[in-house]
Amino acid sequence: MENKDNFNSRPDGKKQFRHFTTPKADNKDLVFGIQPVLESLRAGKEIEKILVQRELGSIEILEFARMRGVPVQKVPSEKLDRITRKNHQGVIAFVSAINYVKLENVVADVYEQGKTPFILILDRVTDVRNFGAIARTAECAGVQAIVVPTRGAAQINADAMKTSSGALNFLPVCRENSLSETVKYLQDSGIQVVACSEKVEKTIYDVDFTIPTAIIMGSEEDGISDDLMRRADQLANIPMAGRVGSLNVSVANGVILYEAIRQRSLV
């Protein structure tokens, strides 16, 4: 079912997707306790992940989380106690500071407006401040959406919002169960997928970014997964002349996005 809050009415009566991610009225990062977490799931709140004490076994929350596609992690009680000293009953949920949007809606709206798609995919970027900085640069560069995986992505909390300098109030974030399937969907939609990696010889200056493009940036530790590297249409690196072999992912993101802007400004 479509989220009506993500659409505006146009003069011709049609609905138009709004190009921003709706901020939450309640910015508290945590919900704890079996019943509060269950009610949050039932109410449709956007939840980043749920931590469940290993000894609890099967509880109703697990089924609701599975139906909603919310990641669940079984952890020892000591970890839950470190997060909060309050009576968590073995369950803690991290609530997102934003509402996620559907990638299909973004892509359809971009094409309908006659614009050239410009999408950013983050493969397992887990550092919250890196994510916020990336979002800030992406919004400034005119990126139309950031895509993150359901599992293995930075938590979008107050720190991420602050580091993005408000960019996450305007830039859609799409959470997908499978980035591999997302890449295929984008390719089927006429969008080339470019993976940025220092492991290849072709540079970003050899890639045509004036056509519909999605750029993949990899994790801070081991870059882009092999599966996504194989599925990408093009692989490209950022040339470096120094002795250090790689850039921070946020910095690398800025370099490649602004090369795309440079090319598009010449068209």
UniProtKB/TrEMBL annotation:
<dbReference type="Pfam" id="PF08032">
    <property type="entry name" value="SpoU_sub_bind"/>
</dbReference>
<dbReference type="GO" id="GO:0032259">
    <property type="term" value="P:methylation"/>
</dbReference>
<feature type="region of interest" description="Disordered">
    <location>
        <begin position="1"/>
        <end position="20"/>
    </location>
</feature>
<dbReference type="InterPro" id="IPR029064">
    <property type="entry name" value="Ribosomal_eL30-like_sf"/>
</dbReference>
<dbReference type="GO" id="GO:0005829">
    <property type="term" value="C:cytosol"/>
</dbReference>
<dbReference type="InterPro" id="IPR013123">
    <property type="entry name" value="SpoU_subst-bd"/>
</dbReference>
<dbReference type="InterPro" id="IPR029026">
    <property type="entry name" value="tRNA_m1G_MTases_N"/>
</dbReference>
<dbReference type="InterPro" id="IPR001537">
    <property type="entry name" value="SpoU_MeTrfase"/>
</dbReference>
<feature type="compositionally biased region" description="Basic and acidic residues">
    <location>
        <begin position="1"/>
        <end position="15"/>
    </location>
</feature>
<dbReference type="InterPro" id="IPR029028">
    <property type="entry name" value="Alpha/beta_knot_MTases"/>
</dbReference>
<dbReference type="GO" id="GO:0003723">
    <property type="term" value="F:RNA binding"/>
</dbReference>
<keyword id="KW-0489">Methyltransferase</keyword>
<protein>
    <submittedName>
        <fullName>23S rRNA (Guanosine2251-2'-O)-methyltransferase</fullName>
    </submittedName>
</protein>
<keyword id="KW-0808">Transferase</keyword>
<dbReference type="GO" id="GO:0008173">
    <property type="term" value="F:RNA methyltransferase activity"/>
</dbReference>
<feature type="domain" description="RNA 2-O ribose methyltransferase substrate binding">
    <location>
        <begin position="30"/>
        <end position="101"/>
    </location>
</feature>
<dbReference type="InterPro" id="IPR004441">
    <property type="entry name" value="rRNA_MeTrfase_TrmH"/>
</dbReference>
<dbReference type="Pfam" id="PF00588">
    <property type="entry name" value="SpoU_methylase"/>
</dbReference>
<dbReference type="GO" id="GO:0006396">
    <property type="term" value="P:RNA processing"/>
</dbReference>
